[in-house]
Design goal:
Order of helices and strands: EHEHEEEHEHEHEHEHEEEHEHEEHH
Distance between the termini: 68 Å
Structural class: alpha/beta
Radius of gyration: 22 Å
Helix content: 25-40%
Shape: elongated
Bound molecules: 6-O-phosphono-beta-D-fructofuranose
Strand content: 15-25%
Number of helices: 11
Largest sheet: 7 strands, mixed
Strand order of the largest sheet: 3-2-1-6-7-14-15
Length: about 350
C-alpha cells in the first residue's frame, strides 16, 4: 500500500500554539506511516509550490515556540488572489490542480474565519480537508475555547499587574487597550484576572459619564487610581468602533478616545497603553499547548479516518468534530447578562454602562 501524503498549512494571523498543533498532527500522522508535507504561507504555498517535508527532525523543539514554523499570511486567499494590476483573481482551480499534482490525500488547515471559509470552498470543490480553529480572540461559537486565547489573556493580565503598581504610585488612571476584534473576551478575562476597576467591551457600549462616576466613586472611597481595560472593538453608546485604518477595518485607538471622553471630568492624570501584537507573540502557556496538541491529534485522526469537511472543536472537556460549514461565520460574543460579566459586576467592576 502506498503511503498517504498529508499536507498541513497555517493561514491568517499567527497565534501562540500553532506549532504545537503542527507538531501533534505531524507526529500522529508519521506514527501511522503517512508522509507529511508542510505547505508554507497558507494556501498561497499551493500556488507558489512552497512545500517542505515535515519530518520528526524538522518539528523537533517547536512545541514551546510562538509563531508558526510554516509561516502564514492573511493575503493568500486563492479565490480573491491579488494580481499585479491591483485587481483580484480567482486562482482556486490552480490550487486544486496543484494539490492533485502533489499527490496530496488530505489537508489540515489551521486558521481563523478566513482560512475556514477557504477550506470550506475547497471542500466543495472536492478537496479532502480538515480544519483546526485558531484565534486569540476566542470568538468562534463552535468551540468553547481556541488555543492562543489564554496566552493572550495571560500577557494582558501581566500588563494590568504592571500598570497597577505605576498607577498606584502616581495616582493615575491607566487605560490598557487589548485585542479581540469585535469580541470582548480578552478584555473581560484579563480585566478580571488583573483586578481592573473598569472593563469596556464591544458587547456593552460605554457611556463616558458612567466611567467618570465609577472613578469618582472610588475616589470617595479613598482610591486615587484606576485601571481601565478596553477592548479594541469597544464603542461609545450610539457610536462606532475606532479604526487605525477604516478601509482595511484595522481596529485600534479606542483607548485614546476613552481618555479624551473622560479627561475634562476628572482630576487625575491619564495614561494610555496599547498592548498590540505582544499579545500574539511568544511562547504559548501550558493550557494552549495542551489544547493545541489535542486539536492536532484529533485533526490527524479525522484525516486518517477520511472524515473530511470537519473542524475540531472543544466542547466541555471533549474534542469533537463539527462541519466546517457550521463553524464558518458563527461568532461568539460576550453575553452582557452571562455568568462571567455577572461575577465581575458582583465584585464592583464597572462596564461603564451606568
Ligand atoms: O484576530 C486576531 C487579531 O490579533 C485581532 O485581535 C486583531 O484585531 C488583529 O488580529 C490584528 O491583525 P493584524 O496582525 O493584521 O494587525
Amino acid at each position: 500500500m502506498t503511503k498517504k501524503r498529508i499536507g498541513i498549512l497555517t493561514g491568517g494571523g499567527d497565534c501562540p500554539g500553532l506549532n504545537a498543533v503542527i507538531r501533534a498532527a505531524a507526529r500522529t500522522l508519521s506514527r501511522d506511516d503517512s508522509e507529511v508535507l508542510g505547505i508554507q504561507f497558507g494556501f498561497e504555498g499551493l500556488l507558489t509550490n512552497a512545500v517542505v517535508p515535515l519530518t520528526p527532525e524538522s518539528i523537533r523543539g517547536i512545541l514551546p515556540k510562538g509563531g508558526t514554523l510554516l509561516r502564514t499570511t492573511n493575503r493568500g486567499n486563492p479565490f480573491e488572489y491579488p494580481a499585479a494590476d491591483g485587481t483580484c483573481v480567482d486562482r482556486s482551480a490552480e490550487v486544486v490542480d496543484n494539490i492533485h499534482k502533489l499527490g496530496i490525500d488530505g489537508i489540515i488547515a489551521i486558521g481563523g474565519d478566513g482560512t475556514l471559509r477557504i477550506a470550506q470552498r475547497l471542500c466543495e470543490m472536492g478537496i479532502p480537508m480538515v480544519a483546526v480553529p485558531k484565534t486569540i480572540d476566542n470568538d468562534l461559537a463552535a468551540t468553547d475555547y481556541t488555543f492562543g486565547f489564554m496566552t493572550a489573556v495571560d500577557v494582558a493580565t501581566d500588563a494590568v499587574d504592571r500598570l497597577h503598581s505605576t498607577a498606584e504610585s502616581h495616582d493615575r488612571v491607566m487605560i490598557l487597550e487589548v485585542m479581540g476584534r469585535n469580541a470582548g473576551w480578552i478584555a473581560l478575562y484579563s480585566g478580571i484576572g488583573g483586578g481592573a476597576d473598569i472593563i469596556l467591551i464591544p458587547e456593552i457600549p460605554y457611556r463616558p459619564e458612567a466611567i467618570v462616576e465609577s472613578i469618582r466613586s472610588r475616589q470617595r472611597e479613598g482610591s486615587k487610581f484606576d485601571i481601565i481595560v478596553v477592548a479594541e472593538g469597544a464603542k461609545r453608546h450610539g457610536g462606532e468602533e475606532t479604526y487605525l485604518d477604516k478601509a482595511s477595518r484595522r481596529l485600534g485607538g479606542v483607548a485614546y478616545q476613552v481618555a479624551g471622553d473622560i479627561a475634562q471630568h476628572i482630576d487625575l492624570e491619564i495614561r494610555v497603553t496599547v498592548l498590540g501584537h505582544i499579545q500574539r507573540g511568544g511562547s504559548p502557556i501550558a493550557f494552549d499547548r495542551i489544547l493545541a496538541t489535542r486539536f492536532g491529534v484529533a485533526a490527524a485522526e479525522l484525516v486518517l479516518k477520511r472524515d473530511f469537511g470537519k473542524m475540531v472543536a472543544l466542547r466541555s472537556d471533549a474534542i469533537v468534530a463539527v462541519p466546517i460549514h457550521d463553524a464558518v461565520s458563527n461568532q461568539k460574543y460576550v453575553d452582557p447578562d452571562g455568568a462571567v460579566v455577572h461575577s465581575a459586576r458582583a465584585i464592583g467592576i464597572s462596564f461603564g454602562a451606568g
